[in-house]
Amino acid sequence: MHNYRMVTDDLYWVGADEHRLSLFENIHPLYHGVSYNAYVLLDEKTVLFDTADWAVGRQFIANIKAVLDGRGLDYLVINHVEPDHAASIEEVLLRWPNVKIITTPKAVTLLNQFGFALDPEQVDTVKEGDTRCFGKHTVAFLYAPMVHWPEAMVTFDTTNGVLFSADAFGSFRALDGKLFADEVDFAGEWIDDARRYYTNIVGKYGPQVVALLNKADKAVGLGNIKMLCPLHGPIWRKDLGYIVDKYQHWATYEPEEQGVMIVYASMYGNTEAAAEVLAAKLCARGITNTRLYDVSSTHVSYLISDLFKYSHLVLASVTYNLGIFPPMHNFLADMQALNLQNRTAAILCNGSWAPRAGALMREELAKLKHMDILDEEMTVTSSVQPQNESELDALADAIAASLAKKKG
């Protein structure tokens, strides 16, 4: 049974939802599924924009056939060749062997590496700024290197203002019948999934995302983009400025909110207790936009996502084998891998005989760009004692003063 929806005149969504996958890219947890989006344009020529993952291949093909309703498929535009979007290319070629493929030269190289034996006569490679006309619809192609693969491009329909944005503006979470961002509670239910998707998949490549936004603005004008059609998540047809603003914050590593994220690593609960006391002291000072996380029981993708959201970070770690507690060390490594910067950090260290985690965490944070590491560092020996209260107060005061300065 087919399951497609009209996007706008002549354009149809032919993607599918996936609820069985537990780890996206075999690393990021999916608790609400994910969608694989593809689109068919019905013009004088028929055009398929991207394909889908093997897992939803049957539904995807059924949707294309239903939309075409007996017509042939003339073109396949491949914006991104990552397997979750390109895995079904062979299925398309088997059913519509005369289809012409439009993509970038780099995409052809990668497709060959993945084992797709493409006939060079069947491939139309496009350059930056090239256009193709399918009847009344003319599309323009913009390269989007490292957003987030080197071959990626986006395709802009100059006729109706639709931007096929590849992995940009995507999100975790299945659509479940809904298609447009204005059909869901995006700010309430979806924004955390969208942020976690961006920060963990694309987050390292902020400068490239900024370059793409600037290029799109110069080439077509952001105001002329009427609809964003990503490869995951809902389509944007209203309030595009909302998601563009989020991307501009994320891509420039500027926090969305002034708030404090406290991440603790605790073996027996003593470092956790210190983190809890610090959180309470911050709230007593009127700082209630806080989140407290156990680094051992929270997947790092959630930690990275909230770190892109909040302006301030507290790392509280027990010393382990004269080093940083391993899950905390892994979190710091992910920050570096994803190019996190422009944050204020505070450090709380615990150790019974050689509390070294604080100094080592400071060294790791110093590897990040534009980080303000507060001087008020606190060290706990084994457990928090009454004599530690003044140090906790000093740390809370320093964080509060930094927040006040940032807000000012």
Structural notes for this entry:
Helices cover about 35% and strands about 25% of the residues. It has 12 helices and 23 strands.
Structural class: alpha/beta
Strand tally: 23
Strand order of the largest sheet: 1-2-7-8-9-10-11
| Quaternary organization | single chain
The total count of helices amounts to 12
Main beta sheet, described? 7 strands, mixed
**Average pLDDT figure:** 96
Task: Briefly say what this structure is.
With about 400 residues, the protein is an alpha/beta fold.
Task: Sum up the structure in keywords.
408 residues, alpha/beta, single chain, seven-stranded mixed sheet
Furnish the topology, listing elements before pairings.
Blueprint: E1 5-8, E2 11-13, E3 16-18, E4 23-24, E5 28-29, E6 34-36, E7 39-42, E8 46-49, H1 57-68, E9 75-77, H2 83-86, H3 89-95, E10 100-103, H4 105-113, E11 123-125, E12 131-133, E13 138-143, E14 153-157, E15 162-164, H5 186-202, H6 206-219, E16 227-229, H7 240-251, E17 257-265, H8 270-284, E18 290-294, H9 300-309, E19 310-320, E20 323-324, H10 326-337, E21 344-350, H11 357-365, E22 372-373, E23 378-380, H12 389-407
Parallel strand pairs: 8-9, 9-10, 10-11, 15-16, 17-18, 17-19, 19-21, 21-22, 21-23
Antiparallel strand pairs: 1-2, 2-7, 3-6, 4-5, 7-8, 12-13, 13-14, 14-15, 19-20
Helix pairs in contact: 5-9, 6-7, 8-12
